[in-house]
Amino acid sequence: MSGTGVTARDVVFRDGSASLLRFRGPAAAGSGAPAPLLLVPSLINRWYVLDLAPGASVVAALLEAGIDTYCLDWGVPGDEDRYLGWDEVIERLCRCARAAQRHAGAERIALLGYCMGGTLCAIGAALDPGRICALVNLAGPIDFAHAGILGHLVDARWFDPEAMSCAGNISAWQMQSGFMAMRPTLQLAKLVGLCDRLGDDEARARFLTVESWANDNVPFPAAAYVRYIRDLYQRNELVAGEHRIRSRRVDLAAVDCPVLTVVTERDEICPPPCATALNRLVGSTDTDILCVPGGHVGAGVGSRAARELYPRLVGWLVGGQRTNTNIERSVPQ
Asked: Residue 263 forms beta bridges with which residues?
């Protein structure tokens, strides 16, 4: 077993500090079965946000629909991983996708990336489009010109990622400090909100579970951090078509599979235009956008996630249901 999470699972492949998890559940069989799905969380957050608690689990919803579900657990980088570069991170993702495909015995596999995992999946799908049959970007930044407050904090005019990482990996507390700087009063607001929930045992338990996960971050490998901030946030290379992995240019137009981008109404970490840019940059004409209530984390694990996100996500993956028939709110600009 690896990490936390509530669904039984097995480690089926290892790559350095990373593990490929397969969740136990009845996968649908036959020619009409949905493709196996690889979940890819952010590099700096624990994977179990996707399997947080009963009633707040993307994994459980997928398994219930008969989707053979895998997850990439990035693991915890040690001090010796300070030289783990962005190229190596992408290559690790691609190896784990191939491993999941082999383990499932499938011709192709679907990808779902959350937060930075959405960025990584978009790059991986562009580099190996023939292996990917569907791509879901769950609040993952693509067009960093619309990165909002976080983009302002790391603006090249006053932020040097190489100076930040010269002593080694960016620690979890350094990352947390950056997020807290976006909304200095957020912790106080959370405490006030908790007081309002004192009489609701379920809501209070959910709040404490989410907070526990949110404070369980891992370091960002120094070399990968420099590329991520410099090349994507500061230079916006993905949109410019100038991003490279090894010597290969990442051309998002090479992505020709169906694409779903999920955005949230109150996302300050990845504002909706930052994520929806994927749909106009890919080569696929089968693209869709789903807007759900909540913030960057709450949309996936909040009290309304089981009603607003899970069935629509499953419907898109299993039955090809196009979300524009289900959207009840416009995408914030």
From this structure: 291
d(CA 323, CA 263): 12
Q: Could you report how far apart the first and last alpha carbons of the chain are, in Å?
A: 41
Residue 133 sits at φ, ψ, to 5 deg, of -105, -15
pLDDT at 326 over 50: no
Query: CA-to-CA distance for 325 and 322, rounded, in angstroms?
Result: 6
Q: Is 114 exposed, middle or buried (0-12, 13-18, 19+ CB in 10 A)?
A: buried
Query: Taking a C-beta distance cutoff of 8 angstroms, is the pair 88, 224 a contact?
Result: yes
CATH architecture of the domain 9-325 equals: 3-Layer(aba) Sandwich (3.40)
Secondary structure (DSSP) of 211-222? HHHHT----B-H
**Better-predicted residue by pLDDT, 38 or 205:** 38
Residues 106 and 36: beta-carbon distance below 8 Å: yes
Whole-angstrom distance, CA of residue 259 vs CA of residue 279: 7
Tell me how far apart the alpha carbons of residues 145 and 40 are, in angstroms, rounded to a whole number: 23
> Does the pTM of the predicted model rise above 0.85?
yes
Domain parsing of the chain, residue ranges? 9-325
